[in-house]
Amino acid sequence: TQLLEQSPQFLSIQEGENLTVYCNSSSVFSSLQWYRQEPGEGPVLLVTVVTGGEVKKLKRLTFQFGDARKDSSLHITAAQPGDTGLYLCAGGKRSNDYKLSFGAGTTVTVRA
Amino acid sequence: DVKVTQSSRYLVKRTGEKVFLECVQDMDHENMFWYRQDPGLGLRLIYFSYDVKMKEKGDIPEGYSVSREKKERFSLILESASTNQTSMYLCASSQPASQETQYFGPGTRLLVL
Q1: How does pLDDT run across B78-89, given as a tens digit for each residue?
Q2: Where are the beta strands (DSSP E) in chain A?
Q3: Residue A1: which of B58, B44, B63, B89 has the closest Cα?
Q4: Do A98 and B101 touch (CB under 8 A)?
Q5: A31–B98 C-beta distance less than 8 A
Q6: CA distance A86 to A39
């Protein structure tokens, strides 16, 4: 059983459309990270959120951490083919110091 | 530029063989991790190390062992490879603190026949 549930598992949209990926848990996390992984490569960090209710923007990407620090969302505005990839959320806990719990990932395909 | 390198991108081994996967980081990080990634399951932690010669079991350590003789190098060992160990193996490193970024290598895709 995944500690972090991501939805949807797959998402295919046309260039210019918007999309949202969700990451939910029944556990409280002290931090939540979003990574993007391209085929044949390792995951690369996009953002870390640490405060309940926090919203961070990275160009066309908006990340939100839930008030209770149990869930997060990633919203992409006007998606481009370069946004194609596997998006992974990962939660960290102070009591777990070094380890992250990962979701199963959302595969996003943006068609030109 | 931070760098985590893994010894092989692709590896094909036979059942019963001993397999070594090497990972090197150049960031002087104290923590290093080994994950396996399978479709629909995400990344699952096999072992991690928070210091030289120290190691801790992750969520799925069975069938694996690790070695950390130097700070920059973390090796994953499959003592007797089995077909269910066919997977993508990812190494990562980080500094202590739960909010710190984990930097990943490019992965090793292992096929056990």
Answers
A1: 999 999 999 999
A2: 5-7, 10-14, 19-24, 31-37, 44-49, 55-58, 61-65, 71-76, 85-92, 100-102, 106-111
A3: B44
A4: no
A5: yes
A6: 8
How many of the other CB atoms lie within 10 Å of CB of A112?
A: 8
Which of B47, B100, B102, B104 would you mutate first to test chain A, the one with the most A CBs within 10 A?
A: B102
Average the pLDDT over each of A73-82, A85-94, B75-84 and give the range with the smallest value: A85-94
Is A31 in Cβ contact with B40 (below 8 Å)? no
Of A44, A48, A98, the CB nearest to B96: A98
For residue A53, give the 3-state DSSP assignment.
coil
Residue whose C-alpha is closest to residue A35's, from A79, A92, A80, A95: A92
d(CA B20, CA B67): 10
How far apart CA B71 and CA B53 sit, in angstroms, is 9
Q: What is the model's pLDDT at position B101? A: 80
Residue of B nearest to A36 (CA): B104
Minimal-distance CA residue of chain B relative to A103: B42
B50: nearest CA in chain A?
Answer: A98
Asked if B43 lies within 8 A of A88 by C-beta distance, the reply is yes
CA B40 to chain A, closest CA, distance in angstroms equals 5
Residue spans of alpha helices (H) in A5-111? none
For residues A95 and A110, give the distance between their C-alpha atoms in angstroms, rounded to a whole number. 38
